[in-house]
Specification:
Keywords: DNA-binding, Phosphoprotein, Transcription, Transcription regulation. This protein is of the alpha/beta class. The protein contains eleven helices and six strands. The protein has a six-stranded parallel β-sheet with strand order 2-1-3-4-5-6, sandwiched between helices. Helix 2 runs parallel beside helix 3, helix 7 packs across helix 11 and helix 8 crosses helix 11.
């Protein structure tokens, strides 16, 4: 499956790993290449297999999910990490996303949706459950320091880059941004790349957080 989506599952409950293997394995284009039961083993699995997507539990004994996400983010060309957890959304949402995760889903996500969201994550897009998205917007709005920092960062952008950032905050793809701004997709890709460098962001999700913090996108 060299052209498929390679996935590593990290969860301290073997039954959860087995369930995810079964669900994701039912898709022809997804291959669960390994599983791990704590954060340290998860990082080792990522280094060993170089997957496209990691499904990461947060609350695990030993090295927890947040620490593992930070360590994975230090790897060159890291995979997309999606937090998969049993609780709806709490203070871990922002912490996980700021650490480098591209998404946050509850384990009650319907199997057919999970398969599609793994594909979306593998393409570098943000994946958030509705509950996590609502909590994210609320938490961003309540943080004065985050708003001030984000506003300062946005001031470094050109007007067009700020427009693209606002679109990222809405979760739009490059093709959708290109259609909205009447530009080519290649041009938008260039804007996104330069904007991520200016903002010091590792991925589109972190840029989207800045867009919300700075108030350049409506909730």
């Amino acid at each position: 499956m060299s052209d498929g989506v390679r996935v590593v599952v990290v969860d301290d409950e073997p039954m959860v790993c087995r369930f995810l293997r079964t669900i994701l394995g039912s898709a022809d284009d997804i291959d669960v290449v390994d599983e791990a039961h704590d954060g340290a083993a998860g990082v080792e699995a990522v280094l060993r297999h170089r997957p496209d997507v990691v499904l990461m539990d947060l609350r695990m004994p030993g090295v927890d999910g947040l620490t593992a996400i930070e360590r994975i983010g230090e790897i060159a060309d890291p995979p997309a990490v999606v937090v998969l957890t049993t609780f709806d959304a709490d203070q871990y949402v922002l912490r996980a996303l700021r650490a480098g995760a591209v998404g946050f889903l509850v384990k009650s996500t319907p199997p057919e949706d999970l398969i599609g969201l793994v594909r979306v994550a593998s393409e570098g897009h943000t994946v958030l459950s509705a509950a996590a998205a609502r909590r994210l917007v609320a938490a961003s709005a309540d943080s004065h320091s985050a708003r001030d920092r984000a506003a300062a960062l946005v001031e470094s952008l050109t007007e067009r880059e700020a427009e693209v950032l606002a679109c990222l905050g809405e979760g739009l793809s490059n093709a959708q941004i290109a259609a909205r701004l009447y530009l080519s997709e290649a041009t938008i890709k260039g804007y996104v790349s330069r904007m991520l460098d200016k903002l010091g962001c590792a991925n589109r999700t972190q840029a989207g957080l800045i867009a919300h913090d700075a108030g350049v996108v409506n909730p």
